[in-house]
Amino acid sequence: MLKILGCALILLAGGGAGMTMAGHYARRPRDLRSLQAALKMLETEITYTATPLPEALGRVAERAGPRVALLFNRAREELLSPSGRTAREAWESALKAFYPTSALVPSDLAVLRHLGPALGISSVQDQSKHLHLAMEQLGVEMVRAEEEASRYVKLWNYLGFLSGLALVLIFY
């Protein structure tokens, strides 16, 4: 009886590890899609309503998905802090806090980092161009992420359970 329980636990641990890795691949396209939508909202706030950047970031955070809202809220808080940070520094600080909790990869982070220097200091048209470029680049990354997800989600799910099964067979 104890052997069967041990085998079941090994199978569950292997399957859980595989599902965790698969979940990371499945979450990245969702995060990119949410980021793309949030950047579109930010572009609208800056371009059409001429909202000041801290207020625009707050409005985007209210309407964005819960994961992405953290990035925009943090950037807003950094901008409004008494430390006198620039928009670029606030954006960079928010990215540092957001990146470890997200499913993004370094190429996604690079796209978002290139956006920081244009926020708040350039003209409305220039900010709009930079936001539009970032959305296009995130769209390319999203296509790549969806391809990876379709390829690796099943692989990691099967690999997790099969490695657990292999361990059970080796120990049994």
Detail the topology: elements first, then pairings.
Layout: H1 2-47, H2 53-63, H3 66-80, H4 87-98, H5 106-115, H6 124-171
Helix pairs in contact: 1-2, 1-6, 2-3, 3-4, 4-5, 5-6
Summarize the structure.
By secondary structure, this protein is mainly α.
**Cα radius of gyration in angstroms:** 21 Å
Please give the alpha-carbon distance between the first and last residues. 13 Å
How much strand?
under 5%
Series of H and E elements: HHHHHH
User: Which structural class do the helices and strands define?
Assistant: mainly alpha
- Subunit organisation of the chains: single chain
The description of the largest β-sheet is: none
Provide the low-confidence segments as ranges.
none
Q: Please give the count of helices.
A: 6
State mean pLDDT (0 to 100 scale): 88
Protein name: Stage III sporulation protein AB
InterPro entries: Spore_III_AB
Keywords: Membrane, Transmembrane, Transmembrane helix
Pfam family, one: Spore_III_AB
Features:
172 residues; mainly alpha; elongated; membrane; Stage III sporulation protein AB; transmembrane; transmembrane helix
Question: What does it look like?
Answer:
By secondary structure, the chain is mainly alpha-helical. Helices cover 83% and strands 0% of the residues. The chain is built from six helices and no strands. It has helices at residues 2-47, 53-63, 66-80, 87-98, 106-115, 124-171. The relative contact order is 0.18. The mean pLDDT is 88.
